[in-house]
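Weekly modeling sync, notes
Attendees: AB, CL, MP (scribe)

Item 1: holo prediction request
CL wants a bound-state model with D-xylitol-5-phosphate before deciding which constructs to order. AB pointed out that an apo prediction alone won't tell us much about the pocket. Agreed to run with the ligand included and paste results into these notes for async review.

Input as submitted:
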Amino acid sequence: MRPIVAPSVLASDFANLQAEVEMLNKSQADWLHVDIMDGRFVPNISFGFPVMEAIKRFAQKPMDVHLMIVEPERYIEQFREAGADSISVHLEACTHLHRTVQQIKASGAKAGIAVNPHTSVQLLENVIADVDLVCLMSVNPGFGGQKFIENTYRKIEALKDLIIQRNSQALIEIDGGVNQYNAPLLLEKGADVLVAGSSVFSSADPLQTIADLKSVK
Ligand code: DX5
Ligand code: ZN
């Protein structure tokens, strides 16, 4: 099955955001991945609602919003209003994860859970049947352009087993250090969604790089 490809806007040229979003509209990308960082859950600050709304004005594809923030439950409805089609919260940032997942669904967005590289996917066992997406972080969140963590392959296998066992419909999304070289094995292990920031936006031909990721088997 061909992967869902979700370029991460974090790696785009913010001074030319309209042109970057229009490039993604023309490309074979399926979703736009939007990284929100608060300087507390992660040691970096990305952007907030005004920028997200600016992206939304031009985006013709679903916005997949990745919240790297503490207390995400305070902002779910506002992200939905700003145009989020799916919203992922970090397991490590949610004391009442089940409740927050239900809150995302009630907002009308698809519900995702993101997990840090050190977090065991077994911790998802009691909530996996309720989610649309699991975002496996293949770098420590906070920055684009980091090196892919190889242990992710094992986690995809374990998560795939859990999804089957629990009869869940969740998609497996891989985020961090994804490129044309590791994509084939990621898909072979069971990934459904590939997030790619620097490998797309630092390439000489982003449209071609997106097409290459899309055609990985
Ligand atoms: C990392 C973000 C990622 C990041 C991916 O904290 O969640 O979405 O933008 O960027 P690359 O593909 O450059 O690792
Ligand atoms: Zn992300």
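Recorded for review: The pocket of zinc ion (ligand 2) is lined by residues 8, 33, 35, 66, 175, 195 (CB under 6 Å).
Action items: CL to compare against the apo run; MP to circulate these notes.
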